[in-house]
Write a structure and sequence with these properties.
The complex is a heterodimer of chains A (about 675) and B (about 70).
Chain A (H helix, E strand, L loop, with lengths): L1 H5 L3 H22 L4 H28 L6 H14 L3 H32 L7 E4 L5 E4 L9 E4 L9 E5 L2 E4 L1 H4 L5 E3 L4 E2 L4 E2 L4 E5 L7 H11 L6 H34 L6 H14 L3 H20 L2 E3 L2 H8 L3 E5 H5 E12 L4 H12 L5 H9 L9 E7 L3 E6 L2 E6 L1 H6 L40 E7 L2 E12 L3 H10 L3 E5 L4 H11 L3 E3 L4 H15 L5 E5 L5 H6 L2 E5 L5 H6 L2 E3 L5 H36 L5 H20 L8 H14 L1
Parallel strand pairs in A: 11-18, 11-20, 18-19, 20-21, 21-22
Antiparallel strand pairs in A: 1-2, 1-3, 3-9, 4-7, 4-9, 5-6, 5-8, 10-22, 12-17, 13-14, 14-15, 15-16, 16-17
Helix pairs in contact in A: 2-3, 2-5, 3-4, 3-5, 4-5, 4-9, 5-10, 5-22, 8-9, 8-10, 9-21, 9-22, 10-21, 10-22, 11-21, 13-14, 21-22
Chain B lengths: L1 E7 L3 H13 L3 E7 L4 E6 L5 H15 L4 E3 L2
Antiparallel strand pairs in B: 1-3, 1-4, 2-3
Helix pairs in contact in B: 1-2
The chains are: A alpha+beta (about 675), B alpha+beta (about 70).
Chain lengths: ~675, ~70
């Protein structure tokens, strides 16, 4: 509590003192047995203490010709109440109005701070290495590209760069939301905002602070509140109409009924009806909506940022919550974009022997497929066994292993060297099941019974003029791809997979993840076209989301209603093009983003519904004279406080599945 | 040309009004105010002098919101 008081600004402290003083004086005035003018005078003291700034603003506004301003309306309502002798109500309206202002201020500051905290990425100094080897602490903003900085264990990396010396483990969670620390060594790219955990590293900077990852992220999150959601724009428009309408209604209520009663020879009850009109004015402020809706979105964007999801505008969060179509790129999004050996089909030899030949054959090659074949071999590779290595583009590898000829490559290579690869025909009669130990790096064995069903690339091996069999190398699915698509389907979202790959691998992958539709053999321009068609067909139903890795699908990301770039840390082009950036390449982040978006939108809707219902109910009850100004104060300040508190639930919302059940319980208990 | 300015404004309704005012000010193509970030983003019309434009916005805003502040220097 003491800390809370300390954290208040001077202005807030002053206002709280003012509120307490005014409240005490008002109670004193209520207890003193005075009547008439003395009583009014006694109430005027707290009224002026608490309301002088509002009166000042109201007067200034009238001078500038602005009437429907909440300050002015508050003044009219309270001064009117004074004139009618309802002094306690008049003071109460002002006191609670100020309570609302202070509360609003504190809530905003809290959410701003908590987001700044979540995004506490900046190191405020960098240790620059001088020419004589000594270190100097410098403001990161002053460091030029190519400087050498030293990052000690426990420090945050201040600028993007490449490690020159040293090894360490870095915590990238602030950027990616990934809790597993990462090993880095010489030559590794490190991003600002990561925490250096274990070793001392010397980093050559590659960017100035202004272009560094950390600065870009902070800017993105802060700027997000500029791009207002439709709901926000609607509320602003609504507020512009609501206030004048209620004010006119107040005037009508104050004059019409008593005038009619007067004309019909009843007692007009002027004071009663005017008081009802004044009560209307107190309810006329749209504050609860105007403040709680953007705050809800702001909280949602902050919650997303803390999970490694950067949302570039409230509008995108809103569209994502209402998404009806999610289009996913295959390579790099659903699949790892890295190759792995998924099948080993020996002709007659042992499968381990086949892998051994393949690994030795590819040992000196730099081809992307080679690395994964070498990795799939669990034994030792002895480079001395290999000689006369030659790589033939578009064919494969010819080398000598233990003095005998080894071929590793496609069917053309086999043909040209007179190797009969027809041994694979035997597959039709059923595969030979090799012994697969559990720790085998090979993902699956002999799933295929038909050679032509094989999706990936095939590497045929021949040794000493004999055909040995082939290895299947595939771009494999990410572990969480299927879960992600299942989540989307569960939400009633139609999923489409797009790929430039051939039919076989495209259909296989889309079946494995459970996508609703797949389109293959696509050029980048085709992807744009397909997304455009989907958008056109479903424009009225909801937004179309495209998820890609941001490398070669930037045009589609830009074209879609919501373009999501995945694993885009460090890729400026992708961050630029996308509306939402998933900082690591785990597709499950998409589910987190959707959960957060939907939660945000539901809070926003709750606030709108709650605020409007209470306000209209109070207006109605006030019109028929059931409730007075106290209810109006609740409809104004109370509703605002409740709505803001509701919005603040977004801060720290995790959006992950396991937490969700807990949130549901909370929701229930609140009801 | 787009520029972002730090602002000080203490109520959401006022921030919305400042946005409206800024949008209508001469030399402004588009403007947006984020109450939460306490920032104003202004896209200047072609040929407009940012400084004069911002002075215009600031004085227009101060008319109805005397406590508001735009830091444009």
């Amino acid at each position: 509590m003491i800390e809370k008081i300390k954290s208040l600004t001077k202005k807030q402290k002053f206002n709280i003192c003012r509120i307490i003083l005014a409240a005490v004086l008002a109670i004193v005035a209520a207890l003193l047995p005075f009547e008439g003018l003395v009583r009014i005078g006694l109430y005027l003291i707290p009224y002026i203490i608490i309301g002088y700034d509002i009166i000042r603003k109201a007067v200034l506004n009238i001078i500038h010709g602005r009437v429907f301003d909440e300050n002015f309306l508050m003044c009219v309502a309270t001064i009117g109440a004074f004139i009618l002798g309802e002094c306690p109500e008049a003071v109460a309206v002002m006191v609670f109005y100020q309570v609302g202002v202070v509360f609003e201020d504190m809530a905003l500051e809290k959410s701003r701070n908590s987001i700044a905290e979540l995004m506490d990425l900046c190191q405020d100094y960098a240790n620059v290495e001088l020419e004589d080897g000594s270190l100097d602490q410098v403001d990161p903003a002053e460091i030029e590209v190519g400087s050498i900085i030293v990052v000690k264990p426990g420090e945050k990396i201040p600028l993007d760069g490449v490690i020159e010396n040293g090894r360490s483990v870095i915590d990238t969670s602030a950027l990616t939301g990934e809790s597993l620390p990462k090993d880095v060594g010489v030559g590794a790219e490190v991003l600002s905002g990561c925490i250096n955990l274990t070793g001392l590293i010397r980093v050559r900077t590659t960017k100035v602070l202004e272009d560094s990852t950390v600065t870009r992220i902070l800017e993105l999150v802060e700027d997000a509140s500029f791009k207002k959601a439709k709901t926000e724009q609607f509320i602003t428009r609504f507020a512009r109409i609501y206030t004048p309408v209620v004010c006119i209604a107040a005037l009508v209520i104050a004059i019409m009924p008593p005038a009619i009663r007067f004309a019909m020879d009843y007692n007009p009850m002027w004071t009663d009806w005017i008081f009802r009109g004044l009560t209307f004015l107190v309810i006329s402020c749209p504050c609860a909506l105007v403040i709680s809706i953007p705050l809800g979105f702001f909280g949602g964007i902050g919650a997303a940022a803390s999970k490694g999801v950067l949302v570039k505008g409230s509008n995108y969060l809103e569209m994502l919550a209402k998404a009806k179509n999610v289009v996913l790129d295959k390579t790099g999004t659903l699949t790892k974009g890295e190759f792995e050996v998924t099948d080993v089909i020996p002709s007659e030899t042992e499968w381990t022997k086949l892998v051994e030949y393949a690994a030795h054959g590819e040992y000196f090659s730099n081809h992307p497929l080679s690395k994964c074949i070498i990795n799939s071999y669990s034994g030792e590779i002895n480079p001395e066994r290999i000689s006369d290595f030659e790589e033939i583009p578009g064919r494969g590898i010819v080398a000598n292993l233990d003095g005998r000829e080894l071929l590793a490559g496609n069917l053309k290579l086999m043909d040209e060297n007179g190797i009969d690869a027809s041994g694979i025909k035997g597959l039709h009669e059923g595969p030979m099941m090799p012994d697969v130990s559990e720790d085998s790096p090979i993902v699956s064995m002999l799933k295929i019974t038909d050679y032509f069903e094989t999706a990936g690339s095939k590497i045929h091996i021949a040794f000493d003029g004999q055909y040995m069999g082939f290895l299947v190398v595939e771009d494999i699915l990410k572990e969480t791809s299927a879960e992600t698509v299942a989540f989307l389907n569960g939400k009633g979202i139609f999923t489409t997979v797009l790929t430039g790959d051939s039919e076989v691998s495209a259909v296989k992958i889309s079946k494995e993840v459970g996508a609703d539709r797949v389109e293959y053999d696509l050029m980048p321009a085709d992807k744009v076209r397909i997304v455009e068609i989907i958008m056109e067909e479903t424009a009225s139903k909801g937004a179309t989301v495209f998820v890609g890795d941001g490398v070669n699908d930037a045009p589609v990301i830009m074209r879609a209603d919501v373009g999501i770039a995945m694993g885009a840390m460090g890729s400026d082009a992708a961050i630029e093009a996308a509306d939402i950036v998933l900082m690591d390449d785990d597709p499950l982040k998409l589910t987190t983003a959707i959960n957060i978006a939907q939660k945000t939108l539901s809070i926003v809707k709750q606030n709108i519904a709650f605020t409007l219902v209470v306000k209209f109910a109070c207006l109605l009850l006030a019109a028929i004279g059931v409730v007075g100004m106290w209810a109006a104060i609740f409809a104004d300040v109370g509703v605002m406080i409740l709505a803001v508190l509701n919005s603040m639930r977004m801060i720290g919302f995790s959006g992950s599945e396991e937490k969700k059940s807990k949130d549901k319980e909370e929701d229930l208990s609140e009801e | 040309m787009k520029k972002t300015f730090k602002i000080e404004v203490d109520c959401a309704v006022c921030a919305a009004k400042m946005e409206e005012t800024a949008k209508k000010a001469p030399g402004v193509k588009d403007a947006s105010v984020s109450f939460l970030a306490q920032k104003m983003k202004v896209e200047f019309a072609e040929g407009a002098d940012p400084k004069t434009t911002m002075e215009g916005i600031a004085s227009a805003c101060r008319k109805f919101e005397p406590d508001s502040e735009i830091y444009y220097d």
